[in-house]
Amino acid sequence: MSARLPLFPLPLVLFPGAPLPLHIFEPRYRQMLSDSLVGDRRFGILYRPDGVAELEIPSGHVGCVARVHTAEELPDGRSNIVVYGVERFALRQFVSAPAPYHLGDVEPYEDLPEPGGTLADVGARVRSLFARVGRAARSLSDDFDPLPTLPDDDAMLSFAIASLIDLDAPKRQELLESRSPLDRLRRIDELLARAVEPIEQRATVHSRAKSNGRGPHVA
Prior knowledge:
CATH class of the largest domain: Mainly Beta
Shape: globular
Distance between the termini: 77 Å
CATH architecture of the largest domain: Roll
């Protein structure tokens, strides 16, 4: 079933379940935010690649519904907001409307069924790799905060980790468009597997350097 949604084309990707801070300054999107706050607090974020005009985003392009979590209006009318990704959608078409911002007809975009056992196995490996990479990264920055909590749902796991690691926008969009949780987890697994040994080695060197290479005192 299709629905009509305010649309915010941006050069970034929002994942379901992930937070995203935004600074709203254009008058048309100030109006969109105002309308959203008196309504269901939702609008759609569409990734707009460089060189592509907003209305040139094609039918079928996948975006993510954003729900406004917090909104701070500044004295000059701009706002700082935090949204959370809710669910994916596919753009059917932009529609004409009196609103100054874009509106579009969108339809649900969901995963396809996959074997649960295989997904759980890869999910467990990805969780372990993420913990290793995260601990090493924390050690390198002398940060002792706990690692982010990951979702229990293996189908959502790839989105959660992708929102936390360094990926360019086109790669993020590829993950957003994948309807295979297993494919997404395998992509994340490959990225973390390549990163884990180098970053752990750097963390070990960093730890040794902090102690000036001194080991336990021997009489």
